[in-house]
From TrEMBL:
InterPro entries: Gfo/Idh/MocA-like_OxRdtase_N, Gfo/Idh/MocA_Oxidoreductases, GFO_IDH_MocA-like_dom, NAD(P)-bd_dom_sf. PANTHER family: BILIVERDIN REDUCTASE A. Residues 156-216 form the GFO/IDH/MocA-like oxidoreductase domain. GO terms for molecular function: nucleotide binding. This is Oxidoreductase. SUPFAM superfamilies: Glyceraldehyde-3-phosphate dehydrogenase-like, C-terminal domain, NAD(P)-binding Rossmann-fold domains. Pfam families: GFO_IDH_MocA (PF01408), GFO_IDH_MocA_C3 (PF22725). Residues 2-118 form the Gfo/Idh/MocA-like oxidoreductase N-terminal domain.
Length: 322
């Protein structure tokens, strides 16, 4: 088993602690949180070992799970990597693209593995259809959340939209050609609602909307490609695949048939895959353990997370200009 320690015991850090403690692939050694009084409370309540310095925790483990505020990701990752420890970093990978690129360079220099917590890649609904998404040409996503003061220290693009940016980049095998975006700061000092339009070199267009001031929660994506429409509901963990094929010469009574202006007939049918329910956070942590054990590439690499961050900042820059 890999010895793991968690940096940061806030809302998400506590979830990571609980899941790592349950995992059969890790041995949870303990955690560090800079708020000493809070850390003592967590240690007393749950029985996890509390370390009083980051250095002591890093020295005691094989893997460092960084679940601190984004501003400290780079600093924590740098210390862990230079100590020869593998790093799991919660999204976004860092505050700036320059920091992320240095994390990549350090990981290569010290020959360690790193993975970033873009958890929607492990959402069972997305996993069920990912292999069916082939050369999508139009993508539309809505990620709407009720207001929560947690996370408002960063723009909604880095807080919420980056999930969809990463998922889109994982299925569109082309580079971003242009970005157009707008956003409004309603409650926070940074935008709380944003819309971005990404155009890719292969002609694909992605329209992405994120809000943290909505009346209800929604996390949906729709992918349109030749002869197929695919929808993913990340929140309810369900998906739908609607496909078209050449219509039979003699359609059945209940076959859905479309005919275009040229007289070509197509049959519409459902090809919905089964969704295997899982704990996405546990999955992402355990696949990282597998990558370390088997010396394989992590599911969400440092490079992929950096590209998602790069696109996020292109969106933010565009919003500021507009």
């Amino acid at each position: 088993m890999l010895k793991v320690g968690v940096l940061g015991a806030g809302h998400l850090g506590k979830i990571h602690l609980r899941l790592l403690n349950q995992s059969e692939k890790y041995e949870l050694v303990g955690f560090y949180d800079e708020n000493q009084e809070y850390a003592e409370k967590i240690a007393a309540e749950f029985g996890y070992k509390r370390f009083d310095t980051i250095a002591k925790l890093i020295h005691a483990v094989d893997v460092v799970d960084i679940v601190t505020p984004t501003l400290s990701h780079y600093k924590c990752a740098k210390v862990a990597i230079k100590s020869g420890k593998h790093v799991f970093i919660e999204k976004p990978i860092s505050t700036t693209v320059e920091e992320a690129e240095e994390i990549i360079a350090l990981a290569k220099e010290y020959n360690i593995k790193g993975q970033v917590g873009h958890v929607e890649r492990f959402n069972p609904a997305f996993k069920a259809v990912k292999d069916k998404i082939e050369n999508p040409m139009f993508i539309e996503t809505h990620r709407l959340a009720e207001f929560n003061p947690r996370g408002t220290d960063v723009p909604v693009v880095l807080d919420l939209m980056i999930h969809d940016i990463d998922a889109i980049l994982s299925v569109v095998q082309s580079k971003v050609k242009s970005v157009n975006a707008s956003g409004v700061a309603v409650i926070s000092d940074s935008p709380d609602i944003s819309n971005a339009r990404l155009e890719f070199e292969n002609g694909c267009v992605a329209n992405i909307t994120s809000s943290r001031i909505s009346m209800k929660n929604m996390r949906k994506s729709r992918f349109f490609q030749k002869d197929a429409y695919i929808s993913v509901d990340y929140l309810d963990k369900v998906c739908e695949v609607v496909k078209m094929k050449d219509a039979p010469e003699v359609p059945g009574d209940f076959d859905m048939i479309l005919q275009n202006a040229e007289g070509i007939k197509k049959q519409i049918y459902y090809d919905n895959p089964s969704v295997e329910q899982n704990n996405a956070i546990l999955d992402e942590l355990e696949t990282f353990a597998d990558a370390i054990y088997n010396n394989t590439t992590p599911v969400v690499t440092l490079e992929q997370a950096t590209e998602a961050l790069r696109v996020a900042y292109q969106i933010i820059d565009c919003m500021e200009k507009n």
